[in-house]
Predict the structure.
Amino acid sequence: MSEHPLPLDALRAAEAIKKADIVVGIPSYNNARTIGHVTRAACVGLAKYFPDLTGVIVNSDGGSKDGTAQAVISAGMEDANLLLLATPLTGVHRLSFPYHGIPGKGSAFRLIFQMAQRLEAKACAVVDSDLRSITPEWFDLLLRPVLFAGYDFVAPYYHRHKYDGTITNSIVYPLTRALYGHRVRQPIGGEFGVSARLLSRYLAREDWETDVGRYGIDIWMTTIALAEGFRVCQSFLGAKLHDAKDPGADLSAMLHQVVGSVFLLMQEYEDVWRNRTGSEPAELFGFRFDVGLDPIDVNLDRMLTAFRHGCEELGEVWSIALQPDTFSAVRKLAGDAYPGATGFHIDDELWTRVVLDFACAHRKARLGRGHLLRSLTPLYLARVASFVIETRSLISAQVEQKIEELCLCFERMKPYLISRWDAEAQPEKPPSRDSSVVERASQEVEQ
């Protein structure tokens, strides 16, 4: 493990507490409006479901200026009228510290994991700080499989609006499932339970200063658990209601960091995924039920415009990243990408080829990897636009079936991936335009 000591105030708190059975981590940045509710849910969950165990809540903060830390410290069970079957042995410690390292969720997790290891916790749960639908039961569902059923990693399983989680649905879930053979529905969900054994493995890694320290942390955690044979399950948490965004806006950095982490881990775990075919369900705990979901507004015209501009600006980049037949099919779609279009469609096989071609191009690094990943944004938005048009009138079960069909397409095309992965890199003429072309196309999406 690379040297990265706990901040002094966190170290002193750990020395004072000495030991804890459970650590709940909440990463944050300017979440004072919602983090008090999340903290209270954690306090009640630990008191209600684990009264015989000691718990610590650690808020790992990225320098909030809105009173986030104060909201954590002041939150508790005192203002709730609770009927508990057992009186907790001790109160739950609530701590808040600024994390160090590159700004991002992964760096926040690192401090939480270090605290859990220092306190010799048996299990650690992490939850997002902007959740509005979180309940005390979430902590039982995330921690009990680790504490009492021998699991190392508990992923969330919840209902989301059909246009929430588009990076998961269009890329990360289908690709991760096809690679590692397990159907973990929300591999970048944000809420996880982790055993002490797996937590130690995470901290022993040397890649915390990469995109893992930012948005790449969730898929990094899930992939290591799957690829290295840790026991993995899922728990049904109901609805995920949080500060969701239009999938066509403000997701570029997340897309690049998450997908870049997936592609890098593909290289590390090639020996694991090459010989895996098909997929099998991951064990699912919890009572499944239907829930109401917040609507999400989608700016379809903006996504189609971004794709059309991408075709104009990034053709030379895509011609290197994509196989000729894939590139030709993508170019033909540009004529249908106009505002108000209702017939725009990217079929599952073409989209799968796009993602797999980018994975192989990322491995061979014919282009700068950062520029390559940024050039994926307009293509991703095109796929989301196609999905929105196709599913506008469908109910959630029908939408889930569409996602299942995409996953099966990724699984069927595993031989294509392997053949492209193994292909010798051919000398290519580099794009004649400089890297600012990619930057400008990305900015078209973000503006």
